[in-house]
Every structure is written in C-alpha cells, then in structure tokens.
Specification:
The complex is a heterotrimer. By secondary structure, chain A is mainly alpha-helical. Chain A contains 28 helices and 2 strands. Chain A has a two-stranded antiparallel sheet with strand order 1-2. In chain A, strand 1 and strand 2 form a beta hairpin. Chain A starts with a helix and ends with a helix. Chain B is about 80% helix and about 0% strand. Chain B contains 6 helices and no strands. Chain B is globular and about 55 Å long. The termini of chain B are far apart. By secondary structure, chain C is mostly helical. Chain C has one domain: Helix Hairpins (Orthogonal Bundle), CATH 1.10.287.3510. Chain C is about 80% helix and about 0% strand. The longest helix of chain C is centred in the last third of the chain and has 31 residues. The chains are: A mainly alpha, B mainly alpha, C mainly alpha. Chains in contact: A-B, A-C, B-C. Chains A and C meet through helix 28 of A and helix 1 of C.
Chain lengths: ~725, ~170, ~100
C-alpha cells in the first residue's frame, strides 16, 4: 500500500501528467493466478484428504506432529496460497504504475472469448481495466496478500489447512472477476462466486452445526439480494439489449431523470447490494458469519466481499445519479444501518461480534457516500476501511489465537472470543495492542488517520448534497448528516470499549492461562504492521481541497488533494454531469451553519473526546469474566440481543414461509398433486386388475370370448 | 338326382358332425369326423370340385385323420369314456352362443339372393375341366397366378414340420 | 344347389363352434375346429360355382393350413400330455394373469 502512496505522491496530485496509450500488462494473469492457486491447493486438499476430513468431523483436532515433519500437502499451501496473491499484486502494481502515466478517459476492455451468444445478446469473457477496477484490484490483491500471509500463521495447525487456502484463493479469483468483469453478467458470476466462497468459509468448521448454519444463513440471505441483482439485470437488458458496462452507460443518456424505470433498476440493484453488503434489512447474516476463521472475516466479511455492494453502486453511479429516489434510499438505508449497527455494537461481548457490527455500520457509511453522489468518497472509505478493519480483524485474530492457546494449555472451555474473559492483554501482545489502537483511532475518525479523512468526507458530502440548489429532499439529507455524526460518536465509543476490555485493566483469563498468552508470530504481526501503515497514511491521498491548506491538511504540506477524486473522475464524470444538470452546485456549508474545516475540527475533537470518555468510563467499570457475568437488563438487554431482529425475522418471515412451505408440501404436494398422480395409478391398476379377470388361462373361456367377438362382428356386419 | 344326392350327403355330414361333438370316446368322434369329411367330399363332387373331393378323401380323411388317430392311440386315450362334456350352465350358455350364431347366419342367408341352378362360375369351371382336365383346371392358376402363395404354403408346411418335430422331441427329452 | 350348400356350411360351422365350446378334450376340440374349416370349405366350393375357380384354390390353401395346424397342434398336445398326463383343457391354465 505504501507503493500506492509513493506512486501517488510522485504524480504530484494529478494522475494524468502525460498522455499516451495504456498498455495492460498480463491482466488475465491477475485473475488466473488465484484460480491456479485454487486448483493446486484443492488438489493438495484432496490428496491430503481423508485424515484431515475425518479430523474435522471429529472436532477439528488433528495431530499434525512437529511443524518440521508435516507432510508436503500441509506445507505447500503456505507457499502457494500467499504466493499467487503476491504475484498477482505485483502484476497489478505494474499495471497501475503504467496507468498512472497516461490519461485514460475510456476504460480498456480486454476481451478473451465470447462467453455466450444468444440471438442479439452476447456476453464476452472480458475484463474492464479502468481506475475503479484497478483500485479494487489493489485492495483485493494487496490486502488479500497480507491476510493470506496472516492465515499461514493463524491456520497452520488446522486439519483443513490446504482446503482453507483452496477456498481462500477461489474467493480471490471470484472477487477479481467481480471487480474486473466488463459486464453486469460477468460481475454477477463473481458476485455469486464470492457468495459461494463466503458460504464455504463461514462453514469451514462444518462439524459444528452452529457454524454450518451460519454459512447457510449467509447464503440464503444473499439469495434474496441476488434476486434484486437479477431483476435489475433483466431490466437493463430489456432497456439496452446488452449488459456490458460501456454501452449501458453510454445508453443512459436516453433515460428520463427520476423516471420509474431507472428508479426500479437502482432499487433492485440496491437490494442486491444490501444483501451482499449487509445493509438493513439483510444485514443479519454478517454477524453470524463470524463463525468462520478470523482471517476470513477480515478478508471476506470486512475488507473485500461486503464492499461489493458499494462497488456496484459506484460502478453504476450514472444510474443512481439519474434516480433521486434511488440515491436517497441508498443513503437512507446506509445511515440507518450505520446508526443501528453502532448501537448494537455497544453491548456485544464477543470481540468479533463488535467488529462485525462495526463493519455493518461502516458499510452504511459507504452507502451514504455513494448515495449522496459522492462516489469517490464512498470508494475512499471502502479503501481506508479495508486497511483498518482488516487490521482490526487480524488483530482480534491474533488475540483469539493467543487466548485459544492459553485455554488449550489448561484445557479450559472458556470462550476465547469473549472480551469479558480478556483484559490486560497489552502486556502480553504489545504489537497487536499498538496496531489495533491505530486502527481503532482510525475508525473512530481521529485526525490524521485514514478514517478521519474518509468518514468526514462522507458526512460532509451528505450535508453538502442536502444543501444543493435544487436538492430533492433537503431536510432528509440534513437528517442523514445528523445521524451520521451520532453514529460516528458511537463508533468511537464502542471501539474504545472493545480496546479497553481487551487490552487494558486487569487480566481475567486466570493466572495459569495468563502464562501462556503470547505475542503473535512474525508472519502474523508483519501484516498487522503493514496494515497499520495503511491505516495511518491511507487517508492522505484524498484530503479535501478545503482542508488542504488548513491545519488539518498539514498547512498545505501535502503535495496533492482529492487525488482519489481526480483518479476516479473518468468513472464518475457522467454521474456528476447529471447531478450538476439537475441539482446544481452542492452547498459548502452544514445545515446549521459552519464550513467544512470547522465541522471537520468539531467532529474529530468530539470523537477524541468520546474516545477519552469511553476509556475512562469503561476502564472504571468492573468487568467480570463471562462465566460470572449477570444477564444484562433494560435497554442493554435489548442491545445485547440485537433488538431481537433475528427473533422477529424468525417469527414474521421465516416461520410464515416455513408454514406456507409446509402447507405446500403436506397439502398441495403430498395430498393434492401426489393424490392425483396416485389416483391415476390406482385407476390404471384397478382397471388392469378387473380386465385381468378375463385372463383365466382356461382355453374354454378364451374360446367363449372369441366366439362372442365373432358374434359381435357378425352382428355389426349384418345390421 | 344331383339335388337329391346333395341332400343325402348333407344329411350324413350334419349327422356325423353332431356325432363328432357328442361322441363320448375320442375314437368315436374321430370316426364320425371321417364320415363327415367323406360326406362333404361327396358334396364337393356334386359341386364340380372333383380334385378337391379327391384331396379331401386322401389327405384329410386319410392322412390327417390317421395322424389324429395315432395321437389318440399314442396317448392311450382311446378307451377313455370319461365325462368330457362341460356340464350345466356352461353348456347352456354355449348352446345359447351357438344358437345366436345360427340365428345370425340364418338371418344373413335369408336376406341373400337365391341363385337357381348353377352359377356363371360353374360354366367356367366346366369349360376349364373340359380343356385341361379336372387336375389341370386347378393346377393352372395355382402355378401361374397364385404361385407365390403356393410357394409360401410350402414354407408354412416346412415350418410346421420343423415345429412339430421340435415340440415332440423336446417333450421326449424332458 | 349353392343355397343349399351355404345352409349346410352354416349348420356344420355352428355345430363345430358348439363343439369347441363344450368339449374339454383338446383333441376333440381340434376335430371340431377341423369341422369349422370344412364348413368354410363347403362355402368356398359353393361360391366357386358362382364366381370361378379361385374358390377351389382357396380351399386348397385352407387344407394346407389345416394340415400344418394339425401337425403343430398335435405336437403341442403331446407335449402337454407328457407334462400333465391329461389332455383336458380345464386342468391347465398356465396363461393365467
């Protein structure tokens, strides 16, 4: 990620210094490498096969012996898994630096073969290389590489290690197809593929029914969203006759601004995005998805896959710009999710659950960004979030790893993920402690860390959009702005609470266990450190112009401002034109007065105040280990139980559907349809039985019937 | 004279036929059958079918009936005087069916036109008999117009012989 | 004489039918079938007097078929007799459902 930064710095704020043709360097290999990794690791997993599968079935413990004496099937994935990602990342970097040197107004579409051709409709297996897809590729391969490295340390003692890397590589392959595909159809392939991998990895320890169920839940909830994606694609096809990005976006000029068609398309797309990116009402799967291995949570359920919805909206920016209702829905759902999930995160005790709700909340921010037409801001937050949330998840993974080892030594069955059992870990794991504090301050929006710039940009853009000359719903956007601010404060609180409960105060693991707590090995903490660098400096590439010269922009010391904004200009230009035409210039003041710099200072000071307050409040609380904790009461109980959303879904959606299914099964299918079919059978059988009575086997009877037949024929011929 | 003879032969044929049906012993039935065949051969002669009459006597009454007799003797059924007729309801129903058939046939014959004397065909046959002889009259069309059915009949007989031998031999082995 | 022959044919045919229906001895059933065939032959010969020599040729074929049928039928009866020790058709019903 530092390479991105230096490359950006070298460009001096303008990504297009000189013109020339962009020549892609082996773009297909970027996609192909993870697929090859999947095939290789998958083959190893199959060869490794039986004992590992049996061990997983028996509860995940496999006596692998000493690390040096493990079979090749167990050691090779350590090289193949991260290796393919590393090479893919290098190729992406090479392409990226080439791209920096040229003005690329139009996307480069590399077509390999015709995937399907039916009548007038064709879809090519084509990769779209443009600024947005390259940004996503950098995140997927870069952050993905680091998480793969971390996984080597985290998963090495697991029986299903080769299988794990096979799935992880497959995920990266599909994710790259998702972000590089040159058409909605190809994007959908990746979209479904990452859903599959998510399912496979959530249920990685499938012998535990709860975890397998969590995988199913994620898959099924995502199907609801996929339905929306499909309908939107059908609408696009009937409108434009193609699903390729370039002709679709070229064709949007014929669409009516705010028309029913474009609104329907955007709303259906957003349904898909809400499913994949865990927004209300389809967010319920993501907290449960924490059942998977922690690096999976970091890669799939924080940094990459869940941001696919944001990518979808940003990619379809012109469609969303054409639909004020669609945009307002996206932003509204986003801000509501951000606030809602943040409140739930306040009362969670499972360290991964806190991070999961935090992810849901931060995804809400991204949707606010892309919903208010600040596509670059949304994508910017996507990028910074990938750094600090991956860091937080990996850090929590290191903590859980350590806790697990400690409990393993004493054969304790305490919950290794419950923060009430932790406390005081900073003495044992200083690197994890420091890097996670960096990420926490970043996500809380403390200047000058990455999260400050990206989140503040979104909040500000929400306000600015509401203040546009002919904004569709100015009051609504003011409300969004206020809610986003409150959610930001809550973020600062729950993250600090998590850090204090985990790393500060007295150790609650127990004295015997505490002896076995240890810092993560280098292969695990190095990714943490790299991501920490990204969490610190990642925000500097897109400092708003207004802040650049202020104290928040280091008094103009940074060589560029709004670099990402300019970088994504070719992608968002059309949407911004639409916006400018129909809404006019956005305002440069908050709804209740005050400029961008003032509000940025207010928000970061407020966030810092909340962090300090939370540190003192939570630090003063007496936390007791999970086993002795009383059940929460009052509103805390409601929050602890996540507003009972799962229960309500169960009562009002799942049970009625189950009931209806049971009705369809028992009454319609088993009784009516099967009854009809069986009745036909019974009739034939009965008729056959009746007629078979004539088959007496007695020659006389046959002669008798034969004569009767002759008589009938004779009679008919006479009369 | 001819008509009178016809009635005589017809009477014998009908009587012998009844005998075939009601005779208790199989050999008795067989003898009645031979009688009936001979009487029918007589009617053939009266109807200018001399060759057929000869074949009827030689092949039918001679060869086929002797075959039946062989079988009866072989199976040792000759002296069997067991009650062979079906009794009761079945016989009544069978009689009803036969009666119905008789009625229908009578109805059909009643409606048909009465031909006095011998028909047009009889003159043609008489001419052919005069020209080629009784055997030639039937042999000519058999070897010209109807040569294919004739040859097929030969194959039929071959198959029948093979089948009969196969059936009888298999029974012997088992 | 043609009319009389046809009446004769009908009578013998009905008698043969009745015989097939009421007798249980397979050989006699065969004989009754032969009776029916002969009844038909009488009708053919009568019609030959009306329409020409073809009627007689048909009788020739009927006789051939009757000979073949008798040969095969009697072979079957012998087989059955070997197995069941009887030719009473009421005592075997292999073709039952």
């Amino acid at each position: 990620m530092t390479a991105l930064l230096t490359a950006a710095l070298a460009q001096g704020g303008s990504p297009a210094a000189e013109s020339g043709a962009f020549e892609p360097f082996l773009p297909g290999l970027i996609v192909l490498l993870p697929l090859l990794g999947f095939l290789a690791n998958g083959a190893l997993a199959l060869a490794h096969g039986r004992d590992s599968a049996n061990a997983v079935r028996a509860g995940g413990e496999l006596d692998l012996g000493e690390r040096g004496s493990r079979p090749l099937t167990h050691t090779l994935p350590s090289w193949i898994g991260p290796g393919v990602l590393g090479v893919a990342f290098v190729i992406t970097l090479v392409n990226f630096t080439r791209m920096l040197g040229v003005e690329l107004a139009e996307p480069v579409v590399v077509s390999y073969w015709t995937w399907m051709a039916t009548g007038t409709f064709t879809v090519d297996a084509a990769l779209q290389l443009d600024q947005l897809s390259f940004l996503m590729m950098m995140i997927v391969t870069g952050v993905g590489f680091l998480i793969h490295l971390f996984s080597v340390g985290y998963m090495q003692d697991d029986a299903g290690y080769p299988r794990y890397f096979a799935f992880l590589n497959l995920f990266v392959f599909f994710m790259l197809v998702l972000v590089m595909g040159a058409s909605y159809a190809l994007m959908f392939v990746g979209w479904e593929g990452v859903g599959l991998c998510s399912y496979l990895l959530i249920g990685f320890w499938f012998s535990d029914k709860e975890k397998a169920d969590a995988g199913k839940k994620a898959f099924i909830v995502n199907r609801i969203g996929d339905f929306g994606f499909l309908v939107a694609m059908f609408l696009l096809y009937t409108t434009f006759g193609t699903l390729d990005f370039v002709p679709v976006f070229d064709g949007t000029e014929t669409l009516v601004y705010g028309g029913g068609l474009v609104t329907a398309i955007t709303l259906f797309f957003f349904l898909g995005a809400a499913g994949k990116s865990a927004q209300i009402p389809l967010y319920v799967w993501l907290p449960d998805a924490m059942a998977g291995p922690t690096p999976v949570s970091a890669l799939i359920h924080a940094a990459t896959m869940v941001t696919a919805g944001v990518y979808l909206v940003a990619r379809s920016s012109v469609l969303f710009a054409l639909s004020p209702v669609g945009g307002a829905t996206v932003a509204g759902v986003g801000v509501l999710t951000a606030l809602f999930a943040a409140t739930i995160a306040l009362q969670q005790h499972d360290i991964k659950k806190v991070l999961a709700y935090s992810t849901v909340s931060q995804l809400g921010y991204m949707f606010v960004g892309v919903g208010v037409g600040a596509y670059a801001a949304g994508v910017f937050h996507l990028m910074t979030h990938a750094f600090f949330k991956a860091l937080l998840f990996l850090g929590s993974g290191a903590v859980i790893h350590s806790m697990h080892h400690a409990y393993h030594h004493t054969h304790s069955h305490e919950d290794a993920q419950d923060m009430r059992n932790m406390g005081g870990l900073k003495a044992h794991m200083p690197i994890t402690w420091i890097t996670m504090w960096i990420a926490t301050l970043a996500i809380a929006g403390i200047w000058p860390l990455a999260g400050f710039f990206s989140k503040d940009e979104i909040i500000w853009q929400a306000a600015a959009f509401g203040g546009a000359e002919t904004a569709p719903y100015p009051l609504l956007y003011s409300l969004y702005w206020a809610m986003a601010l409150v959610a930001a404060m809550l973020t600062a609180f729950y993250m600090t609470r998590m850090m204090v409960m985990t790393f500060h105060g007295a150790n609650r693991t127990g004295t015997e266990e505490a002896k076995h707590l240890h810092e993560a090995p280098a292969i695990m903490w190095v990714p943490l450190a790299v991501l920490a660098v990204g969490s610190v400096f990642g925000g500097w590439i897109n400092v708003p112009e207004a802040l650049r010269t202020s104290v928040l922009g280091f008094g103009g010391a940074l060589p560029m401002s709004e670099w990402l904004h300019h970088w994504l200009e070719p992608i968002t230009a059309r949407a911004h034109e639409v916006q400018l035409e129909h809404l006019g210039e956005v305002a440069h003041a908050a709804p209740i007065g005050g400029g961008e710099v003032a509000w940025a200072i207010i928000s970061t000071v407020a966030a810092l105040a909340v962090v300090v307050a939370a540190f003192r409040v939570v630090g003063a609380q007496k936390v007791v280990p999970a086993a002795q904790s009383p059940a929460p009461t009052g509103f805390a109980k409601v929050l602890y139980n996540k507003y009972y959303v799962d229960e309500h879904y169960d009562r009002f959606i799942v049970r009625p559907i189950l009931g209806a299914s049971r009705f369809c099964w028992k009454v319609i299918d088993a009784t009516i349809i099967d009854g009809t079919v069986n009745a036909v059978g019974w009739i034939a059988k009965g008729l056959g039985w009746g007629v078979s009575m004539f088959q007496t086997g007695s020659v006389n009877t046959y002669a008798f019937i034969l004569t009767l037949g002759v008589l009938v024929i004779l009679g008919v011929s006479i009369f | 004279m001819t008509v009178f003879l016809f009635y005589v032969f017809a009477g014998i044929a009908i009587g012998a036929s009844i005998g075939v049906v009601i005779a208790r012993s199989p050999v008795g039935s067989l003898l009645f059958m031979v009688t009936a065949l001979a009487a029918i051969a007589g009617t053939f002669v009266l109807m200018e079918a001399h060759f057929l009459a000869a074949v009827q006597i030689i092949v039918y009454a001679g060869a086929i009936m002797v075959l039946f007799l062989f079988v009866i003797m072989l199976l040792n059924l000759g002296h069997e005087a067991q009650r062979d007729l079906k009794g009761g309801a079945f016989a009544v129903v069978s009689a009803g069916l036969a009666g119905a058939m008789a009625g229908l046939l009578a109805l059909q014959l009643r409606g048909s036109e009465v031909v006095a004397g011998s028909g047009a065909g009889a003159e043609a046959i008489a001419a052919a008999n005069a020209e080629y002889g009784v055997v030639g009259a039937i042999a000519r069309p058999l070897y010209t117009t109807y040569v294919v059915p004739f040859e097929i009949t030969g194959i039929l007989l071959l198959v029948a012989i093979v089948g009969a031998v196969a059936l009888a031999k298999r029974g012997e082995q088992s | 004489m043609i009319n009389e022959a046809l009446v004769l044919s009908a009578i013998i045919f009905v008698i043969g039918t009745f015989g097939v229906l009421v007798r249980r001895n397979a050989i006699i059933m065969f004989l009754c079938i032969e009776l029916q065939l002969n009844a038909v032959n009488v009708a053919f010969v009568a019609f030959a007097n009306l329409y020409g020599i073809e009627g007689q040729i048909f009788v020739f074929f009927v006789m051939t078929v009757a000979a073949a049928e008798a040969a095969v039928g009697l072979a079957i009866i012998i087989s059955i007799f070997r197995h069941y020790e009887t030719v009473d058709v009421g005592s075997f019903n292999l073709l039952k459902w």
